[in-house]
Amino acid sequence: MHIVVCTKYTPDSEAKMSVDEAGNVSWGDSPLIINPWDEYAVEEALLLRDEYGGKVTVISMGPEEALEALKHAVAMGADEAIRVWDDACAGSDTLATSYVLARTIDAIGEVDLVLCGKSAIDAETWQTGVALATRLNVPSLMYTINIAELDPDEGTITVERLLEQGRQVVEASLPAVVGTIKGINEPRYTSFIGIRKAAGMDYPLWTLEDIGADPDRVGESGSGVRWPTVFEPPVREGEAEIIEAETVEEEAQILAEKLLAEKVI
Amino acid sequence: MDFSWTEEQRLWRRGVRDFAQNEIAPRVREIDETEHIPRDIIEGMAEMGLLAPTVGEEYGGVGADWIMAAIAAEELGRADISLAVPVLYLVEAAWGFIFYQYGSERLKEAYLPQVTRGEAFLGIATTEPEGGSDILGACQTRAEKDGDAWVFNGEKTYISGVRESLEWGGIHLMLTRTADVDEAGHKAFTFFAMPLKGTEGITPTFFDDMGRMGISTGGFALDDVRMPADHQVGEFNRGFYHAMEGFSAARTLIGATCVGASKAALEMGMDHIKMRHAFGRPVASYEGVQFPLADLYTDLAGTELSTYKAAWTMDQKYQHDAATHHDIALAAAMAKLKAPILGFELMNEVADWFGAMAYTKECPVEMGIRGIRSYSIGAEGTPNIMRIIIARELLGQGFLPTLYTEKA
Fold first, then answer.
1. What's the CATH class of domain A2-222?
2. Using CA atoms, how far apart are residues A91 and A96, in angstroms rounded to an integer?
3. ipTM of model
4. Which of A229, B260, B367, B398 is the most buried (most CB within 10 A)?
């Protein structure tokens, strides 16, 4: 079974974001990491590979910094990694990104399953996975919290999706795009052996030409989203009050009264 | 000259930090209070390749070089400033390497895969009631040949991991006297692998430690303990030299872990003095705080360089055969001399910045002070022994103080 995982590099979740007067967004000197949601997708791919055999290929569209995500996935245990980039890709929104990823998966050839995180922690659009499935013309199984059954021979997959209304069990044909959420697994840490492999491996760079993509459909020209203005929201004013009393019970009583008075509860 | 890390080293530091900060750092107080390293932490370390990493892959290790081993030691010290997890790590990394180099095939197959999986402990036992660093005078446990077996009598004390070895199984590399010291001098000692769990004739003792509570300190008496001949580790009567090799390895990693714990304490202190106000201004704005900070940071940066130079020298020796035992003894002694003492001073200074809170268990710095004191007192060699080694390498064997003590 060949599983492809789409990954993205993002700033660390503890990064302090700032926006300057010209609207440029900065993540400070935050280290770049694999998008945390994508770690669940990589872990699930590794578990499925170990159970059903085959290989896991991770892909990422991005400049050289995207190698951080690919190296992390390889250090976790992924078999192969491909970076896709062309200067024309800069400024791609989900429309353009999903186009590039779909063209890449088509270029890879035989793919049984595509996994991705539900969203990326930087832009949080939640759209790339769905758009990718649409472009590949395969089932979209977003918000998956459990892959209940997988039958590579029959080409079927059954997943549990965690929706606001509850859990939904869905059966679909393969290939499909599965979007993973927290709780589907516990991503492993990168091991010494995995890191040694990740540090020494070659990461092929595929260009738009390699994947047969139209340069007009990527980057800003291929994107539907425009950013007229970008600004930092004003800092919310607030006050902290420390409740002190003789006993914890008294403190809890005072807290409850205050919350009732403020109509919080 | 190039101070940059390789890609492998950079990714390894990030990987270990990720694991250690997520899985160990939030539980250091629990480890200190329960005097126990939780099983899931040991299992996580095994999965990452953090248990006896210097052992080759054929026995379940990962074949880490010494810079990689030192990076892990630093990151574990940064996460666990009580130094309990780091002690477990570095004892196995250093002495596991000696066992991997000199142990018999059968014994390595029997123990190393278990050690690297976290199912057995591997420790070191040289110190005796009469003393530690003075091996010639203090190491009196005897090994005598009886047919195909060895018979041991004596006592080892202040040994890390006695409880772990008794509970999990495993071995301590035990230095014993196998010749007349007056005649053979340093060539009077041999190493043996001593399993404590289930061994007839072993009587353990335990100490209530001041710090690094998560790993036990104890001892064991040996009363006619019998072991097969293949429990000999290394050459007969060359145990002293194998011990010195292991001490150099351990001292390098001690340097690294103390640097890590010091960095953690300094960062905690800096965060605090930037937030805390006194007399209408941040505590960090006072020169009385800034000047010690500047001095400590400078000393720490120097000690860090010295420590990684020691690890690099170890790699020059073991990876490239381009350094001698003297080179590694000198480099490791310098790292071991500076890092624990500096760490202790640094943590005391940081405690001053925290004020009264530092004297409570609300503040983790007290765990650091208690833990690092083990290494500044002298586990794996006292500061004065480090000074003697450094002076010996500078002046030559002919000026060793012991030579003149004997003449007098």
1. alpha beta
2. 9
3. 0.92
4. B260
